[in-house]
Design goal:
This protein has two helices and 14 strands. By secondary structure, it is mainly beta. It has a four-stranded antiparallel sheet with strand order 1-2-4-3, with no helix packed on it. A four-stranded mixed sheet has the order 7-12-11-9.
């Protein structure tokens, strides 16, 4: 009989499991229960499954790979079956020696981008933006995309436009959820809107989170309200708790008491 053929292989929406379906019932590569994936997959495949990964058969046609800590396997990458292990069930057949390409899930939850930042900073203060409350990485690091726009910049002011362009180029190079923008990269008294979008390893992309800051003359205190409640619906009589933090501007010596 012909060798079993993988008809579909895809990540589950959770990102922690891969399901491979075969066209005919198989001998399950003589695996029983939860087993080491090396019973059917090559070493080159196993090392990308992470620490603690294991494999099992849900049925004679359905093979499941449960990824472990530090897995690097991604969509459109492949798993390779060991030779002479997987055959048709109950009859002589050729062995499957396929390389199986893993597709992303048909449906998946989008990650959520969130950021926390001040609405104003002093003329010598860096702008510190925290995007660490973003969620949906499915156990892996989120890919980030920062951007910004400036409101009210004169279209004829080439120097100001160039400064905004330099800021945008700086943001495109940033790869972490924590962002620090040096004070001299912002024009004075101009509202800047910063944007954060995140993407998980399966390709799910968030909508952009946004926040606006102005670099002011002088040394106003810097106040940040955490945005973990943003986007939530709250009824009229509900209690809404907000958390925040404040600090003195670096433009003046820190005061001990007011």
């Amino acid at each position: 009989a012909p060798a079993p053929v993988a008809t579909q292989a895809a990540f589950e929406p959770s990102g922690g499991e891969v399901i491979v379906n075969f066209d005919v019932p198989t001998n399950r590569a003589d695996m029983a229960g939860e087993a080491a994936c090396g019973a059917l997959l090559t070493n080159e495949s196993v090392v990308r499954l992470g620490i603690g990964a294991y494999c099992s058969w849900a049925s004679p046609t359905t093979f499941a790979v449960f990824l472990g800590t530090g897995a690097t396997l991604g969509p459109y990458e492949s798993l390779t079956l060991l030779p002479n292990r997987l055959r048709a069930q109950g009859q002589p057949s050729y062995a499957s020696e396929a390389t199986v390409t893993i597709e992303p899930p048909e449906t998946q939850e989008r990650p959520t981008a969130q950021l926390s930042m001040p609405s104003s900073v002093g003329e010598c203060d860096d702008t510190v933006i925290d995007g660490s409350m973003s969620r949906g990485g499915l156990g892996r690091q989120l890919v980030v995309a920062w951007d910004a726009t400036a409101e009210g910049v004169d279209d004829d002011d080439d120097e100001a436009l160039e400064k905004v362009a330099r800021l945008q180029a700086y943001l495109r190079r940033q790869t972490t959820l924590d962002l620090r923008v040096p004070a001299d990269q912002l024009l004075m008294e101009i509202p800047y809107t910063f944007y954060l979008a995140v993407r998980n390893f399966l390709g799910g992309e968030s909508t952009r989170a946004a926040g606006t800051v102005v670099r002011n003359q002088g040394a106003p205190p810097i106040v940040v309200i955490d945005s973990c409640a943003s986007g939530k619906d709250v009824s009229r009589l509900s209690l809404l708790r907000l958390a925040g933090k404040a600090r003195f501007s670096t433009c003046t010596p820190r005061l001990v008491a007011l």
